[in-house]
Design a protein that fits this description.
This protein has 344 residues and is an alpha/beta fold. The chain is 28% helix and 26% strand. The radius of gyration is 20 Å and the shape is globular.
Length: 344
């Protein structure tokens, strides 16, 4: 099979012909049709991600890609409920099933994770092995193209907003509103919670996309006087930061209302500012970190998409061989919405 391999951290991927993997037991072989290109893929390529998560660097070569959809090619002898030809979306956040976090239904926090495209081979290839069929979701009235970004950008945004405990009386500021996660977060905030949405992005294209997808207000820089007018002089109830840099956290936490929540998703190095810590008790603020969603979140965001309530903003489709170009586009900030690789 054809695969784009990471042979050395920090170096471009290389196209190779490698042996198609064999499966057994509860494993499923999926013929990959589409794989979304995520900022996490850049962190895997550089190796930086392994400094941020409780996981050792995998042995190379590695196949990147965790937003994977396709068709069941082969099933192991312990698999039930799936057949060859089924269209599926893969949940890449796979746990070992035995640790405390798996047992309470939070597989994404597993002590011994098997994350596709991060700790084991992913979707920048014609075929991928899913270690356990319980992480497969059949697609009914949703295409493999439109479903693939849900596996990370969709479920991660859904979880972050759920932690925000939004409702129609609350406001939410989405930082990075024009990106892959922000663009779907806007749709979820409106469709599920009916909240007032303020989209923040440094890109003009990102701001246009955020406005098109339903953000009530969009801005590249936040004017506090204007913001207070928008929010009835209270400030923002929830801030979801899909960038997570020192700059974004230091600049935006001050816009929180009393009892406000700052939900950090992005992993660009920002920590809790000193002054924010001093005001936590008097303002009733909560600063929450979140990784991605669990299997329940995954199912719910998939149902939202199947019911036509949300749709990933796929702005460009490239070939498998163009994976390095897609990653470079992300690195240079040339992307609004989501890029997707068409594999087969």
């Amino acid at each position: 099979m054809k695969a784009m391999l990471l042979n050395e951290f920090g170096k471009p991927l290389r196209l190779n012909d490698i042996e198609t993997p064999r499966i057994r037991g509860s494993q499923v072989l999926v013929k990959v049709e589409y794989t979304g290109v995520c900022h996490t893929d850049l962190s895997v390529k550089s190796g930086v991600i392994y400094n941020r998560i409780s996981m050792e660097k995998p042995k190379l070569p590695l196949i990147l890609g965790h937003e994977i959809s396709g068709v069941v090619e082969e099933i192991g002898d312990e698999v039930s409920g799936f057949s060859k030809g089924d269209k599926v979306l893969i949940n890449p956040w796979i746990g070992d099933g035995s640790c405390y976090y798996c047992k309470i239904g939070e597989d994404q926090y597993c002590d011994n994770p098997k994350w596709l495209g991060i700790s084991m081979n992913g979707g920048y290839a014609e075929y991928v092995v899913v270690p356990d069929y319980k992480y497969l979701y059949k697609l009914r009235n949703l295409s493999t193209l439109d479903s693939s970004p849900l596996a990370c950008s969709g479920v991660t945004a859904y979880r972050a907003l759920r932690l925000g405990e939004l409702n129609p009386a609350k406001s939410v500021m989405i930082i990075g509103a024009g990106g892959g996660l922000g663009s779907i977060a806007i749709q979820i905030a409106k469709a599920v919670y009916g909240s007032l949405v303020i989209g923040v992005d440094v890109s003009d294209d990102g701001l246009r996309l955020a406005s098109k997808l339903g953000a009530d207000y969009v801005m590249s820089k936040v004017n506090k006087e204007e913001l207070m007018k928008i929010t009835d002089n209270r400030g923002v109830d929830v801030i979801v930061d899909f960038v997570g840099s020192e700059t974004t956290i230091n600049n935006y936490y001050t816009f929180l209302s009393k009892l406000g929540k700052y939900i950090k998703v992005g992993t660009f190095g920002g920590g809790l500012p000193h002054d924010a810590g001093l005001k936590l008790h008097s303002m009733g603020w909560q600063f929450i970190g979140t990784l991605t969603g669990n299997r329940k979140d995954f199912l719910e965001v998939l149902k939202l998409a199947e019911n036509g309530k949300i749709k990933p903003a796929i702005t460009r489709t490239l070939s498998l061989e163009e994976a390095n170009e897609a990653l470079e586009n992300l690195e240079k900030g040339k992307v609004s919405g989501r890029q997707v690789l068409k594999i087969t």
